[in-house]
Protein 1
Amino acid sequence: MELGFETIGNATLICHDHGPVLVTDPWMEGSAYFGSWTLSHEVPAEQRAAIQKCPFVWLSHGHPDHLSMETLEKLRDRTLLVANHFGGRIRDDLRGMGFSVHVLPDRVWTQLSPHIRVLCIPDVNQDSVLLVDVGGRLLVNLNDAGDRGWGRFVRKVVREYKESYLLALSGYGDADMINFFTEDNQRIPPYAARKTPVGRTIARQAEQYGVRYFVPFSSMHKYQRADSVWASAYTTTLDDYARGFESESCTLLPAFIRRDFTRDAVEPIHPRERALHPVDPKEFGDDWGELLEKEEAHALQEYFRAIHHLKDALDFVRFRVGGQDHVVEFHRRRFRRGITFEAPRQSLATAVRYRVFDDLLIGNFMKTTLHGEFGARGLYPDFSPYVAKYADNGQARTRNELREYFGEYRRRDPLGFLRSQVETHCIRPLQTQSAELLRSLVPADSAFFRTAKETYWRARRVLL
């Protein structure tokens, strides 16, 4: 291909300029999240060959379905491009493994070839966005990133292009911890069980950014562990993306495509869908009957006690491993608000040792029970961001480190940071409460509910 792009795999974008130049988040084989996830479709030989010819590899963030070490081992002599994140964990870890890593400057165009340039936007959540200019057409690769204050900047750039494509996570919502239980051990149906038409969300998001085309992206996975395969009921099939899609300004394209700008052609790619059978967790080293060893239990205590925000937000965190409880107490005489996680020893110990607790949450084989008042958002905003984003990835655990962490992102983009904080601490909680109240009064598929929801999103776009 002389000039254009392809999409394949989970969140893999391949950009061509007289040959392959750039690939994003390549994941060609293997599993993620302690074996829980695998690719929903095979990566064809043609796209595999193109990936391996790319001199540049961009990595959006540290989740293993985006940063696949099995795939990166096949790309050892390439230049890895990463966002300029506070803490620099991905940069330092990859350099420590011998990779050539280049940190992209914030919001500055970098030329990769005569007709391809890129602009990277890191955010406070340790996610990043990549804008790719391919011969005067704009590709907006959001992967998993939600607007953390950079939305207005992206919309401004989109307005400079006549032809623009949005590639973003979409689906029913299984790509997070949804394995919640009541205190009497009954599974709580996740939000994804509502099966809200994905096309409606896609159309709203595309119109919010002002793009001309939308490509489903960053959600092409299947569950394969026997203890997480239950979540397969909430994954999104290729046919689901078009459900409810209606837009006068945007066209929905297939998830796997070859867009040739020289020939002005869009061709679907038809990879083989993977047929899976549940795999015993023991194949991935997890025996639910194993107990934590003494040093592992000690490491568990140290890991969570080092995250100072948890002392302000929770009374305890309990881990049930092999039927034995390990309690991290933040307030010895107060046990009103806390979390119980039930997990197998090997994955838990590994997540603590390598500081990748989010991999346990997203794998959805670990069971989670909330005690006390948490609200509809569950582990947000007091647990997941502070543990997985700020502490693990940003390496900010103490109050002073957090002040420095937030201060750095505030300095880089004061107005965007303010919007992000308003969104996180004011708008999202209010949105969740209002939506739950509305659902209790009217059906979620009613015209009134849809109108109220669209009104909210229009107002949100004006404010943020």
Note: The radius of gyration is 22 Å.
Protein 2
Amino acid sequence: MTGLDRPRVLSGMRPTGRLHLGNYMGALANWVKLQDGYECYFFIADYHALTTDYANTENLVRNTEEVALDWLGAGLDPERCVLFLQSAVPQHADLHLRFSMITPVSWLERVPTYKEQQENLTEKDLSTYGFLGYPLLQAADILLYQPKFVPVGQDQVVHVELTREIARRFNQFYKLGEREVLPEPQVLLTPSPKLPGTDGRKMSKSYGNTIELTDAEATVRQKLKTMVTDPARVRRTDAGDPDLCPVGDLHKVFSAPERMQQVYAGCRSASIGCIECKGWAADALVQILAPIQERRASFTASQAMEVLRAGSGRARQRAEATMSEVDQAMRMPKLAEQSVLQTVAAGAAL
């Protein structure tokens, strides 16, 4: 299918540095699968990084490079999808500003993560408009590309629903004739398996419990050796239950069915110890990580940034097509006019 035949999807990720297995299984692995069936736009959300880390930006460039390299290593292909940098497409900020004029403050204050993050990130001053308004920027990120779907896990559905509400409100005020400029995107629910970190909690960089996509085999094995297990297995002879064990959760995601049978039988009968079971889990993780790391090593940081530069040019043309329609619908004065049809045609030719 050509790009015109495929439904468009849009998703993004903050530049937090090297990605871990939780990022991979929660989003990235699914994005790689979407490339062939959808017209995909994936962006590194560097503006969003500023909503909580505005006071420290010294690692922003390096973190962006690391994420881009991990994307390429995971299998995102710039020939099959558009990979770009949010701040390199100024229309994101433009549409965000338009939305800020029409969105009630109460809509933003009721977003669940607004108060939740303020309570959890007490070491940071989050009493800023940027933090309050990040769902608006997120809505602009999405609606700027007029996607049919937004691939998210269940915990992100509420954010897409707010985006749909904002699109609905915009379309109530502004239309091109009888046509709505910003179609409401649909949620494309993606599987997000339970993936514990080495301490048994959700794998998260803030917990320091991650297995990174770039971790060498020896590092993976060492991290798994220290991983918590079923608390019922105090002694080697104690029987355990893989359904109550974080290592068992890793096996469910990464190990073959035959290995899972060995894990269940061996753990419940105490015929295998936790060290052996962790070694099997490490075997499975190394098999997943090895090809990712091999692909990643074939790119330099400058090559990864060049991919983002080229993709950002393509994204700007698509974004400008939307903003031309937004301007016309809002009856904004323009000093240099270009017809919507010309702009759309230019974007379609990419």
Note: The beta strands are 8-13, 39-44, 81-85, 149-152, 186-189.
